[in-house]
Amino acid sequence: MKKWKRRLGYAGIGILLCLCIGLCSIAQSDAKTQQETTCSIDGNKLYAQSAVLMDGDSGRILFAKNGQEQRPMASTTKIMTLIVTLENANLEDLVTVSEYAASMPDVQLHMRKGESYQLKDLLYSLMLESHNDSAVAIAEYVGGEDDKESRDRSREESEKAVNAFCSMMNQKARDIGCYDTCFLTPNGLDATATVQESESGAKTNDGKQDVQMEHSTTAEDLARIMSYCVTKSSKKELFLEITQTPDYHFSNKTDVNEAGTGIVDGSRSFQCRNHNAFLQMMEGAISGKTGYTSKAGYCYIGCVREGDRTFVVSLLGCGWPNHKGYKWADMKYLIHYGMDEYIPFRLSEAELDPSIFTDIPVRNGKTEKIGEACYAKVDVESGEKPEDQSREIDKILLRKDEKVEVTYEKSQELQAPVTMDQIVGTVVYKVGEEVWKRDPILVKNTIEKIDYKWCAALIFRKYFL
Q: Using one digit for the tens of pLDDT, what is the confidence trace for 345-354?
């Protein structure tokens, strides 16, 4: 009987162990599944051939599918046309239409050679209806060097002015860190051209060779351009005002008479309707631009703001007819992922190691008395140099499972003289392998170098006073 009781006891213990192991395995499996669900996104669910989800405030890429692959971008080009014009021209000026501008293919405002329009009106035509002739008229005006109001430009002169404007677009792209973008047209129509390296957008060029380039960008660069337009440009408010306007009415300012021999008051009126349907699809949508050519497919660049989070999504090659709605499905998928998984975090609030702020000994520095090894000490702090108030990025979006890593480098010893606000080290804030912010470690007080006069004064005080 005792033998059987012992066996039953062992069996019971074995069953309990099996149950515990099983429960632990289930818990670990559930935790792993939950982590995978929380921290992953399936790029195969996207229709777009290239796509990026970006933190619009910091420029951090939260998700990318073929994000650095160069592709044509159709009329999403026009966000750059708009911002370059806003930053470089007077919107009250009158733009006279050339024969070249009037010859652009659909989609058109159907402007006529010799007519004049207010530049501001053409920008609404550009963004709401995506008119290709308006884009060229704008580019000719802003990019032209001489006699901008001339209605008698030759085709060669018009093309020269448009090319100059495209150079401005390419320069702006490089200024904001877009090195895989090449603008050849202001309206986004597909184009290929032989240009100098300096116009290609490449960051490793000397501008001396001719290269064959295509009008193209990458999903990363396009998102970076939109991020600049809505968060960093000095004209961001006006950019948002124009791209958010649902309807806009205007008239041409002057016209040509029927005989074509004189100028008369404007006689034609136009109504533009915003074709960016995403503005009504999702709460918080603040800007965007559609695009399509047979080569580029459906493209879209859009921005959503929710609280203190700004999400930018770029989509290239997102379906071809009859799949016009694919881009909206991709937009919603990426925006919902961003909203569910990313929260704002201020790097300046990260916990710092107290050892960063320990005193640093200063060799040959003046002290109150002659020290053993003539060491003084300085206090240090993390901050900005007074003459340089420009900070690097402070607020970024972090996925729920991510952490900010703070590292630092600091001088272990200094040589006098040491001045207040002298940089003696750096605090580095990283997420993964990417550095997002560097704060200088600064000296809080001044230490002068010892000299004979200082030594004599201390000796005199010590022995004679």
A: 999 889 888 8
